[in-house]
Amino acid sequence: KNEVEQSPQNLTAQEGEFITINCSYSVGISALHWLQQHPGGGIVSLFMLSSGKKKHGRLIATINIQEKHSSLHITASHPRDSAVYICAVTGGGNKLTFGTGTQLKVEL
Amino acid sequence: GAVVSQHPSRVICKSGTSVKIECRSLDFQATTMFWYRQFPKQSLMLMATSNEGSKATYEQGVEKDKFLINHASLTLSTLTVTSAHPEDSSFYICSASPQPLGVGGDSPLHFGNGTRLTVT
User: Number of CB pairs < 8 Å for A and B?
Assistant: First the structure.
């Protein structure tokens, strides 16, 4: 079993839909990161969370430390949001452990 | 914002040759940089942690003599794939942070754009 599990693995949505991607982890962490990987491979860091909730534009990330669970929400989704979204956690030694990613496709 | 530059973005080499990949932090100093590898349709896997002025720390299963890491300055780390073989074909990406991961800040992770290596 992976230390970081994401769901769903694949998601297709219609433009404008509200999207939720979930991440569960089984290890103690100091922080959780949400990353966006574009088709060319480049990775952008969206959020770093250690508690509570953060919001950037149409993106919202929440974390529940007790339940070891985080969610990434996208409001009013758009085709340009199509990408792979990766959850990663920082544990001991500053190392990142990655989830397997969620492939999101937003259609017109 | 902070930028990490990775070069080259794509390289094709013959089996048995060596390939060097550079990772530079353009507007901040990074005492630590990380090198990852990603096979198609798979998750990123940490290969090694590059420490400025000292030896890199390799993850289990990563051959340190095959993947040479040099972090000679606070803004540059290099990964050299020595005697490359077709099974080394992969997407290699680096990241750096101006501060230790998980310590304050908003989104301190900064990634290079990656290098797609094809060994023929």
Answer: 69
- Specify the amino acid at residue A9: Q
pLDDT at B99: 64
Contact in structure between B109 and B46 (CB atoms under 8 Å): no
* Nearest-CA distance A73 → chain B (Å): 17
- Among partner residues B32, B93, B108, which is closest to A43 by beta-carbon distance? B93
Alpha-carbon distance of B111 to A81, in angstroms, equals: 19
Q: HEC profile for chain B?
A: CCCEEEECCEEEECCCCCEEEEEEECCCCCCEEEEEEECCCCCCEEEEEEECCCCCEECCCCCCCCEEEEEEECCEEEEEECCCCHHHCEEEEEEECCCCCCCCCCCCCEECCCEEEEEC
Q: State how far Cα B110 lies from the chain centre.
A: 12
* CA–CA gap between residue B72 and residue B76 (Å, rounded): 7
Q: Residues B10-50: pLDDT tens digits?
A: 999 999 999 999 999 998 888 889 999 999 888 899 999 98
